[in-house]
Amino acid sequence: MKKIRTAVVGLNMGLQHAYAFHSAERADLRWVVDLDEEKAAKLAGELGCKYTSDWLSIMDDIDAVSICTPHHLHADQSILALKAGKHVLLEKPLANTEEDCLRVIKAAEENNTILMMAYVIRFLPIIRKLKDIIITEEFGKPFNANCWIEGFIPPMPGSWLSRKETLGGGVLFSHGCHYIDLLVWLLGKPVKVSTLGTRTGTEWMEGEGTAHSTMLFESGALGYLETSWGMQFAERRALMHIHTPKALLIVSSDLTTLEAVTEKGRQTLMTHNSHTSPGSFVSGEIEHFLDCIEFGKKPETDGHDALKSLRAIWAMYEVIKC
Ligand SMILES: NC(=O)c1ccc[n+]([C@@H]2O[C@H](COP(=O)([O-])OP(=O)(O)OC[C@H]3O[C@@H](n4cnc5c(N)ncnc54)[C@H](O)[C@@H]3O)[C@@H](O)[C@H]2O)c1
Protein backbone atom coordinates (compact mmCIF):
# COMPACT_ATOMS: atom_id res chain seq x y z
CA MET A 1 0.00 0.00 0.00
CA LYS A 2 1.16 3.53 -0.81
CA LYS A 3 2.00 5.41 2.34
CA ILE A 4 -0.22 8.31 3.38
CA ARG A 5 1.76 11.53 2.96
CA THR A 6 1.27 13.69 6.02
CA ALA A 7 2.23 17.08 7.46
CA VAL A 8 1.82 18.78 10.81
CA VAL A 9 1.16 22.50 11.15
CA GLY A 10 1.91 24.14 14.53
CA LEU A 11 4.66 22.47 16.51
CA ASN A 12 3.84 22.67 20.17
CA MET A 13 1.00 20.17 20.66
CA GLY A 14 1.76 19.30 17.04
CA LEU A 15 5.10 17.81 18.13
CA GLN A 16 3.15 14.83 19.45
CA HIS A 17 1.36 14.43 16.11
CA ALA A 18 4.66 14.63 14.23
CA TYR A 19 6.32 11.93 16.37
CA ALA A 20 3.25 9.71 16.03
CA PHE A 21 3.09 10.06 12.23
CA HIS A 22 6.82 9.39 12.12
CA SER A 23 6.30 6.11 14.02
CA ALA A 24 3.16 5.02 12.15
CA GLU A 25 3.90 2.42 9.48
CA ARG A 26 1.23 3.64 7.09
CA ALA A 27 2.31 7.29 7.24
CA ASP A 28 5.05 9.14 5.44
CA LEU A 29 5.66 12.30 7.47
CA ARG A 30 6.76 14.68 4.70
CA TRP A 31 6.59 18.12 6.32
CA VAL A 32 6.61 19.86 9.66
CA VAL A 33 5.44 23.46 9.61
CA ASP A 34 5.72 26.34 12.03
CA LEU A 35 5.96 30.12 11.77
CA ASP A 36 9.07 29.64 13.89
CA GLU A 37 11.31 28.18 11.20
CA GLU A 38 14.08 27.31 13.62
CA LYS A 39 11.72 25.11 15.62
CA ALA A 40 10.50 23.41 12.43
CA ALA A 41 14.06 22.90 11.13
CA LYS A 42 15.18 21.28 14.38
CA LEU A 43 12.29 18.81 14.37
CA ALA A 44 12.68 18.09 10.64
CA GLY A 45 16.35 17.26 11.28
CA GLU A 46 15.36 14.85 14.02
CA LEU A 47 12.56 13.14 12.10
CA GLY A 48 14.12 13.20 8.62
CA CYS A 49 11.41 15.22 6.89
CA LYS A 50 11.14 18.65 5.24
CA TYR A 51 10.13 21.89 6.92
CA THR A 52 8.65 25.24 6.04
CA SER A 53 6.87 28.18 7.62
CA ASP A 54 4.39 28.43 4.71
CA TRP A 55 1.99 25.54 5.02
CA LEU A 56 0.06 26.44 1.86
CA SER A 57 3.15 25.75 -0.25
CA ILE A 58 3.15 22.02 0.60
CA MET A 59 -0.37 21.12 -0.50
CA ASP A 60 0.72 19.26 -3.65
CA ASP A 61 3.02 17.01 -1.63
CA ILE A 62 0.60 15.72 1.02
CA ASP A 63 -2.58 13.66 1.41
CA ALA A 64 -3.40 14.65 4.98
CA VAL A 65 -2.55 17.33 7.51
CA SER A 66 -2.75 17.77 11.28
CA ILE A 67 -3.68 21.31 12.18
CA CYS A 68 -2.40 22.15 15.66
CA THR A 69 -2.58 25.94 15.67
CA PRO A 70 -4.37 28.49 17.90
CA HIS A 71 -8.16 28.15 17.95
CA HIS A 72 -9.05 31.28 15.95
CA LEU A 73 -7.12 29.84 12.98
CA HIS A 74 -8.79 26.41 13.00
CA ALA A 75 -11.78 27.17 10.75
CA ASP A 76 -10.04 28.99 7.90
CA GLN A 77 -6.98 26.72 7.86
CA SER A 78 -9.07 23.53 7.87
CA ILE A 79 -11.35 24.82 5.15
CA LEU A 80 -8.36 25.66 2.93
CA ALA A 81 -6.93 22.16 3.39
CA LEU A 82 -10.28 20.39 2.94
CA LYS A 83 -11.03 22.37 -0.22
CA ALA A 84 -7.61 21.35 -1.54
CA GLY A 85 -8.78 17.73 -1.12
CA LYS A 86 -6.65 16.99 1.98
CA HIS A 87 -7.82 14.96 4.96
CA VAL A 88 -7.66 16.98 8.17
CA LEU A 89 -6.94 15.96 11.74
CA LEU A 90 -7.79 19.09 13.71
CA GLU A 91 -6.78 19.80 17.28
CA LYS A 92 -9.68 20.62 19.56
CA PRO A 93 -11.91 22.62 19.68
CA LEU A 94 -13.33 22.52 16.14
CA ALA A 95 -13.76 26.31 15.92
CA ASN A 96 -14.70 29.25 18.11
CA THR A 97 -18.28 29.73 16.85
CA GLU A 98 -21.05 27.41 15.71
CA GLU A 99 -21.14 29.17 12.35
CA ASP A 100 -17.44 28.45 11.79
CA CYS A 101 -17.86 24.82 12.90
CA LEU A 102 -20.63 24.36 10.34
CA ARG A 103 -18.45 25.92 7.61
CA VAL A 104 -15.68 23.40 8.34
CA ILE A 105 -18.09 20.44 8.38
CA LYS A 106 -19.58 21.59 5.06
CA ALA A 107 -16.12 21.88 3.47
CA ALA A 108 -15.32 18.29 4.47
CA GLU A 109 -18.62 16.99 3.14
CA GLU A 110 -18.49 18.91 -0.13
CA ASN A 111 -14.95 17.78 -0.86
CA ASN A 112 -15.41 14.19 0.26
CA THR A 113 -12.50 14.49 2.67
CA ILE A 114 -12.05 13.25 6.21
CA LEU A 115 -12.38 15.70 9.06
CA MET A 116 -11.40 14.22 12.40
CA MET A 117 -11.19 16.02 15.74
CA ALA A 118 -8.14 15.24 17.87
CA TYR A 119 -10.01 14.26 21.04
CA VAL A 120 -7.03 12.21 22.16
CA ILE A 121 -8.45 10.97 25.46
CA ARG A 122 -11.19 9.03 23.72
CA PHE A 123 -8.58 6.86 22.01
CA LEU A 124 -6.66 5.87 25.14
CA PRO A 125 -7.01 2.15 25.97
CA ILE A 126 -8.15 2.88 29.54
CA ILE A 127 -10.95 5.10 28.33
CA ARG A 128 -12.03 2.63 25.65
CA LYS A 129 -12.27 -0.04 28.36
CA LEU A 130 -14.38 2.35 30.47
CA LYS A 131 -16.71 2.94 27.50
CA ASP A 132 -17.08 -0.87 27.01
CA ILE A 133 -17.98 -1.31 30.67
CA ILE A 134 -20.59 1.42 30.41
CA ILE A 135 -22.09 0.10 27.16
CA THR A 136 -22.33 -3.47 28.44
CA GLU A 137 -23.67 -2.23 31.80
CA GLU A 138 -21.32 -4.62 33.53
CA PHE A 139 -21.87 -2.71 36.78
CA GLY A 140 -25.24 -1.20 35.83
CA LYS A 141 -26.09 2.21 34.39
CA PRO A 142 -24.04 5.20 35.55
CA PHE A 143 -25.99 7.82 37.45
CA ASN A 144 -23.21 10.19 38.52
CA ALA A 145 -19.88 11.20 36.97
CA ASN A 146 -17.35 13.59 38.48
CA CYS A 147 -14.32 14.84 36.61
CA TRP A 148 -11.55 17.00 38.11
CA ILE A 149 -9.02 18.76 35.88
CA GLU A 150 -7.06 20.81 38.37
CA GLY A 151 -4.47 22.18 35.97
CA PHE A 152 -2.00 25.01 35.83
CA ILE A 153 -0.37 26.95 33.06
CA PRO A 154 2.02 29.83 33.71
CA PRO A 155 0.35 33.21 33.16
CA MET A 156 0.71 34.40 29.54
CA PRO A 157 -0.85 37.87 29.42
CA GLY A 158 -1.42 39.12 25.88
CA SER A 159 -1.04 35.66 24.31
CA TRP A 160 -3.79 34.03 22.22
CA LEU A 161 -4.60 31.90 25.29
CA SER A 162 -5.40 35.03 27.27
CA ARG A 163 -7.92 36.52 24.85
CA LYS A 164 -11.52 35.35 24.52
CA GLU A 165 -11.63 36.15 20.83
CA THR A 166 -8.68 33.90 19.99
CA LEU A 167 -9.22 31.18 22.62
CA GLY A 168 -12.99 31.05 22.04
CA GLY A 169 -13.88 31.41 25.74
CA GLY A 170 -12.10 30.38 28.90
CA VAL A 171 -10.58 27.19 30.27
CA LEU A 172 -13.89 25.32 29.98
CA PHE A 173 -14.03 25.88 26.21
CA SER A 174 -10.33 25.39 25.62
CA HIS A 175 -9.34 22.48 27.83
CA GLY A 176 -12.67 21.48 29.36
CA CYS A 177 -13.98 20.59 25.89
CA HIS A 178 -11.99 17.30 26.15
CA TYR A 179 -13.95 16.27 29.23
CA ILE A 180 -17.36 17.62 28.20
CA ASP A 181 -16.81 15.58 25.03
CA LEU A 182 -15.91 12.58 27.17
CA LEU A 183 -18.96 12.95 29.44
CA VAL A 184 -21.26 13.23 26.42
CA TRP A 185 -19.62 10.21 24.76
CA LEU A 186 -19.94 8.13 27.93
CA LEU A 187 -23.32 9.27 29.23
CA GLY A 188 -25.30 10.32 26.15
CA LYS A 189 -27.37 13.35 25.26
CA PRO A 190 -27.30 16.24 27.73
CA VAL A 191 -30.65 17.89 28.43
CA LYS A 192 -29.73 20.58 30.98
CA VAL A 193 -26.36 22.21 31.59
CA SER A 194 -24.86 25.02 33.60
CA THR A 195 -21.51 26.45 34.56
CA LEU A 196 -20.04 29.01 36.92
CA GLY A 197 -16.65 30.41 36.07
CA THR A 198 -14.24 32.86 37.65
CA ARG A 199 -11.21 34.89 36.59
CA THR A 200 -10.06 35.19 40.18
CA GLY A 201 -6.73 33.39 40.41
CA THR A 202 -6.14 33.65 36.64
CA GLU A 203 -6.60 37.38 36.08
CA TRP A 204 -4.30 37.22 33.04
CA MET A 205 -7.15 35.53 31.13
CA GLU A 206 -10.18 37.40 29.72
CA GLY A 207 -12.34 34.30 30.02
CA GLU A 208 -12.76 32.13 33.11
CA GLY A 209 -9.64 30.34 34.33
CA THR A 210 -11.58 28.10 36.69
CA ALA A 211 -15.02 26.61 36.04
CA HIS A 212 -17.49 24.30 37.76
CA SER A 213 -19.89 22.80 35.25
CA THR A 214 -22.86 20.47 35.69
CA MET A 215 -24.86 18.43 33.23
CA LEU A 216 -28.08 16.41 33.38
CA PHE A 217 -28.28 13.69 30.75
CA GLU A 218 -31.35 12.19 29.04
CA SER A 219 -30.59 8.95 30.92
CA GLY A 220 -31.06 10.79 34.23
CA ALA A 221 -27.34 10.71 35.03
CA LEU A 222 -25.60 13.79 36.40
CA GLY A 223 -22.14 14.93 35.31
CA TYR A 224 -19.80 17.40 36.99
CA LEU A 225 -16.57 18.89 35.69
CA GLU A 226 -14.08 21.10 37.50
CA THR A 227 -11.52 22.68 35.16
CA SER A 228 -8.77 25.13 35.99
CA TRP A 229 -5.57 26.63 34.67
CA GLY A 230 -4.79 28.28 37.99
CA MET A 231 -4.20 25.41 40.42
CA GLN A 232 -0.45 25.30 40.78
CA PHE A 233 -0.52 23.22 43.95
CA ALA A 234 -3.28 20.73 43.21
CA GLU A 235 -3.33 17.31 44.83
CA ARG A 236 -4.97 15.29 42.13
CA ARG A 237 -7.21 12.58 43.65
CA ALA A 238 -8.37 11.06 40.33
CA LEU A 239 -9.39 12.20 36.88
CA MET A 240 -12.83 10.69 36.99
CA HIS A 241 -15.24 8.92 39.33
CA ILE A 242 -18.29 7.25 37.82
CA HIS A 243 -20.94 5.83 40.13
CA THR A 244 -23.22 3.00 39.06
CA PRO A 245 -25.57 1.03 41.35
CA LYS A 246 -22.95 -1.71 41.69
CA ALA A 247 -19.61 0.12 41.54
CA LEU A 248 -17.52 3.21 41.73
CA LEU A 249 -15.35 3.33 38.58
CA ILE A 250 -12.13 5.31 38.98
CA VAL A 251 -9.87 6.67 36.24
CA SER A 252 -6.54 7.70 37.75
CA SER A 253 -5.38 11.28 37.28
CA ASP A 254 -2.47 10.17 35.07
CA LEU A 255 -4.87 8.17 32.87
CA THR A 256 -2.97 4.93 33.43
CA THR A 257 -5.33 2.95 35.66
CA LEU A 258 -9.00 2.00 35.68
CA GLU A 259 -10.31 0.61 38.95
CA ALA A 260 -13.65 -0.49 40.36
CA VAL A 261 -14.75 -0.38 43.97
CA THR A 262 -17.54 -2.89 44.61
CA GLU A 263 -18.88 -5.05 47.45
CA LYS A 264 -15.79 -7.21 46.88
CA GLY A 265 -13.41 -4.32 47.50
CA ARG A 266 -11.12 -2.45 45.15
CA GLN A 267 -9.98 -4.13 41.94
CA THR A 268 -7.85 -2.98 39.02
CA LEU A 269 -9.70 -3.43 35.74
CA MET A 270 -6.88 -2.23 33.50
CA THR A 271 -3.51 -0.52 33.58
CA HIS A 272 -1.92 1.01 30.52
CA ASN A 273 0.69 3.72 30.24
CA SER A 274 0.27 5.75 27.06
CA HIS A 275 3.21 8.06 27.87
CA THR A 276 6.02 5.66 26.93
CA SER A 277 7.75 7.59 24.12
CA PRO A 278 7.34 10.89 22.24
CA GLY A 279 4.04 10.77 20.36
CA SER A 280 2.80 7.59 22.06
CA PHE A 281 0.06 9.49 23.90
CA VAL A 282 -1.63 10.39 20.58
CA SER A 283 -0.84 7.17 18.69
CA GLY A 284 -4.37 5.71 19.10
CA GLU A 285 -5.88 8.86 17.66
CA ILE A 286 -3.35 8.98 14.79
CA GLU A 287 -3.98 5.30 13.90
CA HIS A 288 -7.74 5.96 13.84
CA PHE A 289 -7.18 8.90 11.47
CA LEU A 290 -5.03 6.73 9.17
CA ASP A 291 -7.64 3.94 9.33
CA CYS A 292 -10.35 6.38 8.25
CA ILE A 293 -8.21 7.49 5.30
CA GLU A 294 -7.18 3.96 4.27
CA PHE A 295 -10.61 2.37 4.59
CA GLY A 296 -12.84 5.41 3.92
CA LYS A 297 -14.32 5.19 7.42
CA LYS A 298 -16.18 7.96 9.25
CA PRO A 299 -14.10 9.17 12.19
CA GLU A 300 -15.59 8.50 15.62
CA THR A 301 -14.78 12.10 16.42
CA ASP A 302 -16.03 13.80 13.27
CA GLY A 303 -17.30 17.37 13.04
CA HIS A 304 -20.93 16.57 13.86
CA ASP A 305 -19.86 14.61 16.90
CA ALA A 306 -17.63 17.45 18.09
CA LEU A 307 -20.46 19.94 17.74
CA LYS A 308 -22.57 18.03 20.31
CA SER A 309 -20.23 18.86 23.17
CA LEU A 310 -19.37 22.36 21.94
CA ARG A 311 -23.10 23.17 21.82
CA ALA A 312 -23.37 22.01 25.45
CA ILE A 313 -20.50 24.35 26.39
CA TRP A 314 -22.02 27.31 24.56
CA ALA A 315 -25.32 26.60 26.37
CA MET A 316 -23.41 26.51 29.68
CA TYR A 317 -22.01 29.98 29.02
CA GLU A 318 -25.60 31.36 28.99
CA VAL A 319 -25.39 31.92 32.74
CA ILE A 320 -28.53 32.76 34.69
CA LYS A 321 -27.85 35.54 37.20
CA CYS A 322 -29.63 35.80 40.56
N1 LIG B 1 -4.95 17.49 23.08
C1 LIG B 1 -4.28 18.11 24.01
O1 LIG B 1 -4.04 17.59 25.08
C2 LIG B 1 -3.78 19.50 23.72
C3 LIG B 1 -2.82 20.09 24.54
C4 LIG B 1 -2.37 21.37 24.19
C5 LIG B 1 -2.89 22.02 23.10
N2 LIG B 1 -3.85 21.42 22.34
C6 LIG B 1 -4.42 22.09 21.16
O2 LIG B 1 -3.39 22.25 20.18
C7 LIG B 1 -3.59 23.48 19.46
C8 LIG B 1 -2.36 24.34 19.61
O3 LIG B 1 -2.15 24.63 20.97
P1 LIG B 1 -0.68 24.84 21.54
O4 LIG B 1 -0.79 24.83 23.01
O5 LIG B 1 0.24 23.92 20.86
O6 LIG B 1 -0.44 26.36 21.04
P2 LIG B 1 0.94 27.15 20.97
O7 LIG B 1 0.59 28.58 20.80
O8 LIG B 1 1.82 26.75 22.11
O9 LIG B 1 1.62 26.60 19.65
C9 LIG B 1 1.06 26.85 18.41
C10 LIG B 1 2.16 26.76 17.36
O10 LIG B 1 1.55 27.03 16.09
C11 LIG B 1 2.41 27.89 15.36
N3 LIG B 1 1.60 28.60 14.37
C12 LIG B 1 0.66 29.54 14.58
N4 LIG B 1 0.13 29.94 13.42
C13 LIG B 1 0.73 29.23 12.46
C14 LIG B 1 0.62 29.19 11.04
N5 LIG B 1 -0.24 29.99 10.39
N6 LIG B 1 1.42 28.36 10.34
C15 LIG B 1 2.30 27.56 11.00
N7 LIG B 1 2.45 27.54 12.33
C16 LIG B 1 1.67 28.37 13.05
C17 LIG B 1 3.05 28.79 16.39
O11 LIG B 1 4.26 29.35 15.93
C18 LIG B 1 3.25 27.81 17.55
O12 LIG B 1 4.52 27.18 17.50
C19 LIG B 1 -4.86 24.10 20.06
O13 LIG B 1 -5.95 23.68 19.31
C20 LIG B 1 -4.93 23.50 21.46
O14 LIG B 1 -6.21 23.47 22.01
C21 LIG B 1 -4.28 20.17 22.62
TrEMBL record:
Residues 4-119 form the Gfo/Idh/MocA-like oxidoreductase N-terminal domain. InterPro entries: Gfo/Idh/MocA-like_OxRdtase_N, Gfo/Idh/MocA_Oxidoreductases, GFO_IDH_MocA-like_dom, NAD(P)-bd_dom_sf. It comes from the Bacteria. Pfam families: GFO_IDH_MocA, GFO_IDH_MocA_C3. Residues 127-237 form the GFO/IDH/MocA-like oxidoreductase domain. PANTHER family: BILIVERDIN REDUCTASE A. This is Dehydrogenase. It comes from Paenibacillus eucommiae.
